[in-house]
């Protein structure tokens, strides 16, 4: 996508060799940096107030980092490739109005979907070192149901590094369901010789949006070998399990994604809360990467890390609404209400934006 876009602030790097680290340390003359080395990812930040827009010092050479994850396009005639789907404009009041919410279980498929989300959430918490007080989580709307959450790294406050590690893993998994569902429905349409009534486009756009989240985080975080191995393993297992499940239980799969997005909204809400409470000082003045500014059309005076998380949280809330709604519909025949025209446009109805967002989804009788 924006292969040549440059990060504007913090960069995560892999653990370098001792010689590289030693050379890097001698290069720092202002003494304002701090280093972190962890199994999954680490970062080395240098604050330079006089030039905040420049990429900060890293033990990974700039060209090596860019070419590994954002290879420059070697094209003679093409200047830039625009996104296939243009993101709707979100206003600040709309994003601030997003709330943590939960759809109550009504059927056995809902029970199954929520149980799978709880299992996945436990594995993700363990893998990324995520921990928080259980009572506080329950008050904010978490339905994990565990008496105590532990991780391989032990219970500890969430830091900027741990948040970025979690975002990386979360977004690499979140981009799978939309692509799987869209491809399955595409094949169904070809095989049945019937139109899909608009579902495929929305599902593929959801997968694209989640991948843009990942690319944005990648501008702030370079994963280590352990994190890359976890992503490969998780994708290999999750993709195939979701594919087989969607073939036979598409309604339950949409409910599963709806519950998963509920937890994603909770995760980003907690991260935003940590920024507002001053527990993440390195993110107080950190600017969003250029790829995020272009994709979300972020206003010039609203490009902080907090603003970026507000945009991502709003997207996750939209996916929550979409999948809960699709889970309420007749899977083979009902049209997609998010791309349909309505008899009475003045009545609130689903749309691509978040102006009429309904956290627990629209019931079938409301839209069909």
UniProtKB/TrEMBL annotation:
Catalyzes cyanide-resistant oxygen consumption. May increase respiration when the cytochrome respiratory pathway is restricted, or in response to low temperatures. It is found in: Mitochondrion inner membrane. It is a multi-pass membrane protein. Its main location: mitochondrion. Fe cation 2 binds at residues 210, 261, 316, 319. Signal peptide: none annotated. The lineage of its organism: Eukaryota, Fungi, Dikarya, Ascomycota, Pezizomycotina. Keywords: Electron transport, Iron, Membrane, Metal-binding, Mitochondrion, Mitochondrion inner membrane, Oxidoreductase, Respiratory chain, Transit peptide, Transmembrane, Transmembrane helix, Transport. It is an enzyme of class 1 (oxidoreductase). PANTHER family: ALTERNATIVE OXIDASE (PTHR31803). It comes from the Eukaryota. Residues 327-368 are annotated as: Disordered. This is Alternative oxidase.
